[in-house]
């Protein structure tokens, strides 16, 4: 027979409050990660989501002024997709989209190809001073795009460029700022800036490959080229996809480099790229609603191309 001391609650009553406290503790623990994420989520919504929603909202509106100079007032009206029709009806805007797509088709594979080769060379067993060369190749990324464009602009200008002077010694007269070549001169600037950045992403992925895989490949008689093709490149496929997506989006965002190079040549007009066309519509034509529509079109194009690329990659993986 058991006895209970006076004033001591039965065991069942003591367990009940403890069991009631457990769900509250679990709920508190689940809220802790959201508390850490709250500052980021707040800034993300404020600086990213809300501006996008505002741009989409503005793309469906139009400001109509009454009177010869708008002295009789103005009103904002809903016009549906009229701004999109006006944007797509501008030949210069369509030409700018085609231009950057051509730019990306050529420049992105070249840039990522160089970045991949550099990453593989620096992570090879026979690489000398890999830390020094990683920093050296990454250094151009530390130069702001505006400064890099100014530097290259002078290197492209006849009479100032040592490149053109040296080419003249062997009988060549390159026109690096001409209508047919200025796009590829800009591509050279972008490639020079971002090879090191993409190289570091690929190197970070290469460092996750276990050393045992390399040893097994060498035991099987694989040489450096076979190891790179059959071991390293397949295993860094996620990093290659990531850098490709970043490069596709960056291509459609091209703005600062052609804007600066336009000061050195007449071959670049105010709507040379989609972002330049939207900027011109907003701050030269004072048509902010059409500029918003152009911005939304550029964003949708980047979305379609990025997810189209991911779909193709996933489709190939499923076939394998």
From TrEMBL:
Protein name: Multiple sugar transport system permease protein
Xref: SUPFAM superfamilies: MetI-like
Transmembrane segments: 31-56, 100-122, 134-155, 182-204, 235-256, 291-313
Family that this chain belongs to: Belongs to the binding-protein-dependent transport system permease family.
ABC transmembrane type-1 domain residues: 97-309
GO biological-process terms attached to the record: transmembrane transport
Signal peptide start and end residues: none
GO cellular component, one term: plasma membrane
Localization, UniProt: Cell membrane
UniProt source species: Nocardiopsis flavescens
Chief location of this protein within or outside the cell: membrane
Keywords: Cell membrane, Membrane, Sugar transport, Transmembrane, Transmembrane helix, Transport
InterPro entries: MetI-like, MetI-like_sf, UgpAE/MalFG_permease
Keyword Transmembrane helix: yes
Gene3D superfamilies, per the entry: MetI-like
Topology class, membrane: Multi-pass membrane protein
């Amino acid at each position: 027979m058991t006895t209970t001391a006076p004033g001591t609650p039965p065991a069942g009553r003591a367990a009940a409050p403890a069991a009631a406290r457990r769900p509250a503790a679990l709920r508190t623990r689940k809220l802790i990660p959201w508390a850490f994420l709250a500052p980021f989520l707040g800034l993300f919504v404020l600086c990213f989501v809300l501006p996008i929603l505002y741009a989409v909202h503005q793309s469906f509106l139009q400001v109509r002024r009454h009177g010869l100079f708008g002295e009789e007032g103005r009103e904002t009206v809903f016009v549906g997709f009229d701004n999109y029709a006006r944007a797509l009806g501008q030949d210069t805007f369509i030409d700018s989209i085609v231009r950057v797509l051509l730019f990306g088709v050529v420049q992105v594979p070249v840039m990522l190809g160089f970045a991949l080769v550099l990453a593989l060379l620096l992570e090879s067993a026979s690489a000398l001073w890999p830390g020094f060369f990683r920093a050296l190749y990454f250094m151009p990324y530390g130069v702001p795009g505006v400064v890099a464009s100014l530097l290259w602009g002078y290197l492209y200008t006849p009479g100032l460029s040592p490149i053109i002077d040296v080419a003249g010694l062997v009988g060549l007269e390159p026109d690096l700022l001409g209508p047919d070549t200025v796009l590829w001169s800009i591509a050279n600037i972008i490639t020079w800036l971002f090879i090191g950045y993409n190289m570091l992403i690929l190197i970070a992925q290469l460092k996750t490959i276990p050393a045992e895989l390399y040893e097994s490949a060498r035991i099987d008689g694989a040489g450096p080229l076979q190891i790179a093709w059959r071991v390293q490149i397949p295993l860094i496929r996620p990093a290659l996809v990531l850098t490709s997506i970043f490069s596709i989006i960056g291509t459609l965002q091209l703005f600062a480099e052609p804007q600066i190079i336009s000061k050195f040549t007449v071959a670049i007009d105010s709507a040379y790229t989609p972002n330049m066309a939207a900027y011109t519509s907003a701050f030269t034509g004072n048509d902010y609603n059409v500029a918003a529509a152009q911005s939304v079109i550029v964003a949708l194009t980047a979305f379609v191309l990025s997810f189209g690329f991911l779909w193709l990659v996933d489709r190939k993986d499923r076939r394998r």
